[in-house]
């Protein structure tokens, strides 16, 4: 959970000092609500897990992210993005489950590869399907939760002794995935704005050139007086 906590800590500091307030307001979440979400994720990450003989559930990797998913999904749905967010959640969940089953849960290298692949690629896929910042963030949380459940069910069916929810790098995958999705969203929106600004500038330039040409070709009454008038 170290990588996720570091990223959340940076975001919390930026929010506390107001450096990221305008960004999250534009995102569709007030800065104070975002700060509470970040704080809840950090606190959940350091809370003890719920454990029985054959079942383990972490607060930071499952319980808090589930609440965050519902919250962000509702906000995305209010903007008319519910269906695309659900599709993005399914896509991100499939990737998460696939990467977990490929990399395994027994080695540090495998866990690192899992959260990096799920975070970076899953975040990009979530944005590609959702098409919005909030939708992609919701899809990352929901997809990681769903992928975690599915992959652990498969591993349990193939002999794993304990069914674990919210463990084995899923927390880091969620946070890296959100960061990846939001960074990609900003890059795409910046590119769109740049293209739109260039198009508008080109249209204005064309209009100005046309006006200048029309003005130059317009007959001047003084010329008629000098060269053709009585």
TrEMBL record:
<keyword id="KW-0472">Membrane</keyword>
<feature type="transmembrane region" description="Helical">
    <location>
        <begin position="54"/>
        <end position="74"/>
    </location>
</feature>
<feature type="transmembrane region" description="Helical">
    <location>
        <begin position="111"/>
        <end position="130"/>
    </location>
</feature>
<feature type="transmembrane region" description="Helical">
    <location>
        <begin position="86"/>
        <end position="105"/>
    </location>
</feature>
<feature type="transmembrane region" description="Helical">
    <location>
        <begin position="165"/>
        <end position="189"/>
    </location>
</feature>
<protein>
    <recommendedName>
        <fullName>DUF1614 domain-containing protein</fullName>
    </recommendedName>
</protein>
<feature type="transmembrane region" description="Helical">
    <location>
        <begin position="137"/>
        <end position="159"/>
    </location>
</feature>
<keyword id="KW-0812">Transmembrane</keyword>
<feature type="transmembrane region" description="Helical">
    <location>
        <begin position="31"/>
        <end position="48"/>
    </location>
</feature>
<feature type="transmembrane region" description="Helical">
    <location>
        <begin position="6"/>
        <end position="24"/>
    </location>
</feature>
<keyword id="KW-1133">Transmembrane helix</keyword>
